[in-house]
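User: Study the fold:
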Amino acid sequence: MKHLNYIDGTWREGHAVSVNINPSDLTDVIGEFAMADTAQAEEAIAAAAAAQPGWAARACGDRAEIIDAAAAEMLARAEELGELLAREEGKTRAEGIAEARRAAQILKFHAGEAVRNPGEFQPSVRPGVEVTVSREPLGIISIITPWNFPLAIPAWKIGPALANGNTVVFKPADLVPASAWHLVDILNRAGLPHGVLNLVMGRGRDIGDTLTGDRRVKGVSFTGSEATGQRVLKSAQAHGARVQLEMGGKNPLVILDDADLSAAVAGAMDGSFGSTGQRCTASSRLIVSNGIHDAFVDRLAAAMADLTVGHALDPATRMGPVVDESQLAQDLRYLDIAVGEGATRHGGELVERPTRGHFLTPALLTDTQATDTVNREEVFGPVASVIRVRDLDHALEVANDTEFGLTSGIYTSSLASSMKFRRESTAGMVMVNLPTAGVDYHVPFGGRGASSYGPKEQGTHARDFYTTTKTAYVHP
C-alpha cells in the first residue's frame, strides 16, 4: 500500500517513493511512502499560512475537543499502533505499545492545556491604567522529528502547537513514516480544519531547508543530531524564526559504593539498553566508584548475557534490532575505536536469528578513560562504557566533563551524596536512584550545552515556545 503526503486536507502523491523495511525482518515491507519535494513543502507552508488565522480564532474548547478525540482513538488503538511502531523502528512490542499510550497521554494533557492559557493582570504605575499580558499563537510551526520515538516525540511537539492555536508542517524521519502517517491521519479525522496539520514525508536534504528557511515559518522545533540541529538553527535564525532544538546526549550514570547493587544494575540495564540504547537519554557512561566497580561490572555483564535479543514482535525478546544498516555500522565502528584505545569489550556481537535483521547483542566497554572517543561522542546504540572513579567528587568531575548536558543519574543510599549530585550536576534533568531514561510528560524536558537550544519541551513549559506574549495598556 502506498501512503501519501497530507497537504491542505488532501492526500498527495510525491516526486518519489520510499520503501519502509522492518529491521527485525528485512523481507518484511511495511509499505511505500510518498516523498515530498520542495514545491510540495512550499504548498504545505502556504496551506498552514491560510489556515492559521481561523485556527487561532477557534474557541479553545473546540481545539481541546479535537485533540482529545485523537488521543482517545490512539488509546483505543494502542496495541495496533505499538505493533506497527515495533515493526518499523525495532523496539520491542511492549515498548511500542507503551509509546503509543504515552503519545495519547501527551495529547490528552495538551487538550487540557488548550483551555488553560493563563495571562496576567497588573496594576500600572500610572493612575487609571490597567495592564494585561496575554499569550497568542506563534504562527506556522515546522516540526522535524527523529526515528527513535516516532509517535511520542511528534505528539509532544504537535500537541502543544495545535493546542495553542498554531498550524503545523510536519516532517518525520525517513526511517519511520508509518507511525507519523497514522498520527496525522488520526488527528485530522478528529476534526482539524484543512491546512492546520500538514504531513510532508521525505529526505531532509530535499525539503529541510524549505521547512526551516521559509519566512512564513515562525518557529522550528527539531529533534535529531547535533550537526543537523546546527544547520536548522542557522537556516531558521536567518529570517528571525524561533528555534527549539533537542540534540545529542552523553549521559552519565554514577554508581557509588553505598548503592543498592541490584537496583543499580537494573537501572543501568534499563538506561543503557532499553529501546536498543537508541535514546538521547540513554546511560552511555557508567561512572563507578572503586569499592563497587568489580561487583557491578560482573553483575551487569551477567544481566546482559541473559538479555534476549531478537525480533521485536517475539514475546521472548527483551531487546530488538538496531534500526538500520547504517546505524549498525556506526555502533560497530565505535566498538572498534574503543578497543583500539584500550577498552575491554564485553558483548557487542552480531547474531543471527530466524529472520534476517540488524541484531547486535548489548555491549559493555570496561577499562575506559574519560577522554576516550566512546566517552566523548554519542554512539546511539546498545553500547555502554564504564569509567572507574575514586569517590563522589571525582564522579561529578567526570560526569560534568562533556559538551552535552541532557540527563544524569546517581545510585546511592546517601541523602547527602544525592543532594550534592543534584545540585552540582550540569545536566538539565537529574535522576536519583532511577535510570537516566524515562521522563514524565507534565514537566519540562530538555538539557543544557550541546544537548538543547531554546525553550524546554513538554508540560506547561511547552507554551513558552509555541506562544508569544502581548502586553496591553488600557485607560478606560
Notes: The CA atoms of residues 346 and 364 lie 5 Å apart.
